[in-house]
UniProtKB/TrEMBL annotation:
Organism from which the protein derives: Motiliproteus coralliicola
Keyword Signal in record: yes
Signal peptide: 1-25
Superkingdom per UniProt: Bacteria
Pfam families for the chain: DUF2282
Record keywords: Signal
The protein, known as: DUF2282 domain-containing protein
Length: 92
């Protein structure tokens, strides 16, 4: 009984810390280059910010939004590896 209680408490702590992905993120993927200014979901490839809503340019290839898995290219976006390649090309 004690082990179960400890395990439950540990799981609750991990979930509260945000280590477990939210249920709404299941079946989604990061899609780069489709976010409007101020509408990105989190940090960018350049590392200039680490929070949602801090993008300053529409369709920046370094900014991303979560979209339904398999729809990124349909929306005109890039998956992470493609976005990294484009970012490197634009930078150098």
């Amino acid at each position: 009984m004690n082990k179960q209680l400890v395990a439950s408490a540990a799981l609750a702590a991990v979930m509260a810390a945000g280590v477990v992905a939210p249920a709404q993120a299941a079946g989604k993927e990061k899609c780069y280059g489709i976010a409007e200014a101020g509408q990105n979901d989190c940090g960018n490839l350049a590392g200039t910010h680490s929070c949602a809503g801090q993008s300053t340019v529409d369709n920046d290839p370094g900014e991303w939004k979560l979209v339904a898995k398999g729809t990124c290219h349909d929306l005109g976006g890039l998956l992470k590896a493609e976005a990294k390649d484009k970012y490197k090309q634009n930078k150098g």
